[in-house]
Amino acid sequence: MTQRLTMENLRKWVPLFVLIGLVLFFTAVNPNFLSLRNFARIAISSSPALMVATGVTFVILMGSIDLSMEGTIAVCAVLFALMLNALGGSLSGAGWLAIPGALLIGAVLGAVNGLIHVKLKIPSFMASLSLGFVGIGLSLLITGGDRILIEDPIFRSLLTVRVGGFPLMAWAALACLLIAWFIQDDTTVGRNFYAVGGGEDLARASGLNTGRLRVTGFIVAGIFYALGAIFAVARLGIAETETGQNFMFVSITSVVVGGTSLSGGSGGVWNTLVGVLIVNVIGNGMVVVGLPDYFQDGVLGLLVIAAVYLSTDRRSLFFVK
Amino acid sequence: MSFIKNYIEHQTLNRRNLLLLSAWGLCGAAASSSLIGRQAAAATSPDPKICWSYRDRTNPFWNSIVAGGEAFVRSLGRQSGDLINLINGGSSEKSLSDIQSLLSRYGSGVALAVDPNDMPNCRPVVEAVSHAGAYVSTIWNKTDDLHPWDFGDNYVSHMTWSDVGPSEQTARVLFDAMGGKGGVVHLGGIASNNPAIERQQGFKNALKAYPNIQLLAIQAADWDTQKANQVMSGFLTRYGDAIKGVHCASDTMAYGVIEALRAEGIENMPVVSYDGNPQAIEMIAKGKLLATVFTNAYWAGGITASLAYYAATGAFKPSAEPREHREFYGPTAVITTKDAQEFKTKYIDTNPEYNWKDFWSLAKGPIRYKS
């Protein structure tokens, strides 16, 4: 019994061990990897992905899935940039309103997503995937394929100003993660995400309005996608339809690699942080050790399978679908 | 939200026009455009539908191509919205099936400009169009054994760009700016894409002439700004201060590289790119970027549609033209800090008025095949 308990305890920490193992491995091949400057680089590439992955964590905790992030990010990024430029082009003036504006747009898109899923009883996989395409189309319609540039030095200070060696963006992302942690652990809604994910029938039988909760989950996710969009724009100074590209793969992979179960009910935002770091450490590390690029995608895939294998307790699964 | 309102108004107008036109056609005018499609063997058509088939509009290059196509359509006194856009999203299957649907709708009354997405897809596209008696001009992707003159008039022309030379020129600009010595990295496009291969080849050719330039690494960043950003930060960790210059195979990747450098507080690293997007020209004028290559996608987009259109109306007979008028290279011009400002006023701030009937004015000679 004691042994079993230790195994279970250990398994919880496996993603973290994988992360440390990867860091040690890349450092052994190229000592430059283990430096504050490189960690800052990894932090920059992780910040937008962390927000998106945190958002989708809430949805996955409920046992649903949300694949609309690429469209939502594209729309939020483009409208954020348009609002910022229309309101004077600087955060110091009225431009700061673009931030709550973008978050509101993220929330609205999330609500639409959730309502379609719940009210029309369409599986979240299909509803969100389709809405993602709608989002891409919408942002293309808004921009006409053009890129919107943001020059505001105050906004770009998220990338250019450093505190303790890390850019402001990384600290801001960490603050948002703490908020997500609070939502997850210390609010009724957060606890109910676990209840629905662990067993929807039970949750419903004990009087929980699961439909409303699901919509709430998608709204929270949408807000975090909007945060991800803002960081992604801050990183490059460009808002365009392609801003959302690749976030679907990165965020879902990160959540799963971090140890949050796709069937819902277990895991959380700290797992997601570890998962995002694993994926970005692999991405950065492969360039740093000089792996030929035609190997990189394949190796990433294999490492993801290995990480998921190590972090899931297969004995507790009767079947895998 | 006025853009949505405008869009809906525009679409409603189009719909109204279509209804009016159809009614007019049904009332007995045999020449109505919607009926011409039924005569599969018709040689030419007075008013063919003009269509551009391409990957998607999010990429600045394709955005310029379509803008040129729209400018050509406007030159005929039609509206921009009359250009039919077939967007394949990078799928050859979708490219072909969309074109087949278009042909079954309008038959021979189609003037099609197309990038077939990949080389093997060019043949089925051209065969479908020529079977329907319509007209097609292609750009970029075509196998070496496929030639417009093998299809009579229906396969009007093919244009591509030779990227080796211009890419070598930008590399030389870069190496000179580096003082002829130091480490350099190259960020390439999707490894299997022809332009990615040619641009890397040009870079390597230039390296031979500069023995003191050290090639540190070559890595594909798939034409993608965000990926280039991450690859460049990886390079900074791996090589640190050894990197003295960056050669990028596209403007979009250069933006990511420059932001990765900016995050580290590096402002004056020489970077060169390719494609000549407005943003890149702007950056050259400001001294943030050293050089790029302008491929005039705007002209290419207009002239490719124009060739197909005027062949379809019978204004010229493709089979009567010499071979260098049917397969030719598109224009390329290296833009450096010296000429960026002048270039910007001439080509970026306003698009020059092109004569869309002057088909080969900017062409750069017949395509040469490696055999």
Automatic annotation (TrEMBL), chain A:
Keyword terms: Cell membrane, Membrane, Transmembrane, Transmembrane helix
Keyword Transmembrane helix: yes
Signal peptide region: none
Record localization: Cell membrane
Molecular-function annotations in GO: transmembrane transporter activity
Name of a matching Pfam family: BPD_transp_2
Membrane topology (UniProt): Multi-pass membrane protein
Name of the protein this chain belongs to: ABC transporter permease
Organism field: Acetobacter oeni
UniProtKB/TrEMBL annotation, chain B:
Family: Belongs to the bacterial solute-binding protein 2 family.
Protein location: Cell envelope
Gene3D superfamilies: 3.40.50.2300
Keyword Signal annotated: yes
Keywords in alphabetical order: Signal
Domain Periplasmic binding protein per the UniProt entry, residue ranges: 53-314
Any one GO cellular component localisation term in the record: cell envelope
Gene Ontology MF terms: carbohydrate binding
Name the UniProt record assigns to this protein: ABC transporter substrate-binding protein
Pfam families with a match to the protein in the record: Peripla_BP_4
Keyword Nucleotide-binding attached: no
Stretch forming the signal peptide: none
